[in-house]
Amino acid sequence: MTTLARGPSTLTRDALAVLQPGFTGTSAPDWLLRRLGEGLASVGLFGRNIASPAQLAALTAQLRAERPDVIVAIDEEGGDVTRLETRTGSSFPGNLALGAVDDPALTRAVARELGRRLAECGVNLNWAPSADVNSNPDNPVIGVRSFGAEPELVARHTAAYIEGIQAAGVAACAKHFPGHGDTDVDSHHDLPRIGAELGTLYARELVPFRAAVAAGTRAVMSAHILLPALDPDRPATLSASALNGLLRAPAAEGGLGFTGLVVTDGMEMRAISATYGLERGSVLAIAAGADAICVGGGLADEETVLLLRDALVRAVREGELAESRLAEAAARVRALGAWARGAGTTSRSAPAPEVGLSAARRALRITGRGAYRPLTRAPYVAAFTGVANIAVGEETPWGVAAELARLLPGTRTGAYGRAEAEGAGPAALVSHVLAEAGDRTVVAVVRDAHRNPWMAEAVDALVAVRPDTVVVEMGVPQARPTGALHIATHGAARVCGLAAAEVIAGSGG
Description:
The protein is of the alpha/beta class. It has helices at about 10-15, 30-40, 55-65, 95-100, 105-120, 150-165, 200-215, 240-250, 270-275, 280-290, 300-315, 325-345, 355-365, 400-405, 420-425, 425-435, 455-465, 495-505; strands at about 20, 40-45, 70-75, 125, 175, 220, 260-265, 295, 365-370, 380-385, 410-415, 440-445, 470-475, 485-490. The strands form four sheets. A six-stranded mixed sheet has the order 9-14-13-12-10-11. Strands 2-3-4 form a three-stranded parallel sheet. Strand 10 (about 380-385), helix 14 (about 400-405) and strand 11 (about 410-415) form a beta-alpha-beta unit. Helix 4 packs across helix 13, helix 6 (about 150-165) runs parallel beside helix 7 and helix 14 crosses helix 18 (about 495-505).
């Protein structure tokens, strides 16, 4: 249902140009191709759109046949957040693992190989890296997606990541501006509030974003977070003070001097959709200084595209949104498309297929009681599983069981959740684990045990009964090490699980 004229006007084309929508399926639907012909300039891809590298390359070629300069964006952080390898787990460790190694050359190499694989499949904008300083260890949505808790460490690795991925011809997108690390609320569910003063913001959150701008990041993603010291009324995505006053303003005026593309985080996230509504939120974001509206993680249909297109056109016609602001935003989108098209024809990277596993091995932190003897018999893996982070998703496998089963055939596994632990109590849960394990060594796998007291209680009770238990922490390693062997992987990517399994079984590099 639209009130627009049949032929797309300049205004309509600009309104389409600022949208970054998603779709369902592994080939482009007719409606998407039609809208590309009418002015849509970007498409966002998610795990549901990807079956294999060859299929993804065919899909992006299909999009480019309709529009050669189309921006094909993806949320491929590596580590826990992967779209290329949603069904298998990532071949690259995530940011926290790279920060734990603290070798910017390694981070640059990992990002370059990741960028090479994206470019090979026709993807030219990566909504990464996370430049958030994970200063709050209870953060439910950033965690291992951050390089760490120290601003300067995060800054040098943010810069290295951007340099690496853009060297492969893929535009980087530093997120989530002005910093999502000091929150204890997930903006997928609600509107987080950060009470830090401006001085703290400049000394902590903004340090990595300054480094990102200096490194030449082509895009920055805004965060749906409220910072009263910056804007008491509107979250950063909808705040002119944040986007124009802080991100765009020159350094002499206290800003970051960024001139590239500003893209919003997903507008269907409840921090925006449940507070302002999808249409009004999108209009306010463009008016505040955003250039591209990311929508498609949860809403992936033509109706959403037409709804937002018409809302932007209507806002211009009714004087709520300046036509020149919309035109400026659309021009930035097209400029990035032109850069990416040129970079894609000139950038060449030599394959480095083992760099991800090498990085995961270097990121391991191993402690234990005395000398550890690698297992020679198949163990029992007890995976203590918390609530899935929406950004990570529930589809992507994690843990060490699959990798241990390859190294030690006959490995068995069981999953244990919070409801079971709190209902039965730690002692009963441990009894169940031991009954399943029999005489096998138990490998207990946790993720953010410090944020899940039931996990810590279960592991402590297990180790008390079976001191030979191996513990693998695949989240942020804040809880005290325990077990005969304790391995902190700094992430749950497939290669992190493999690196840990190699240590447990005494094999590998």
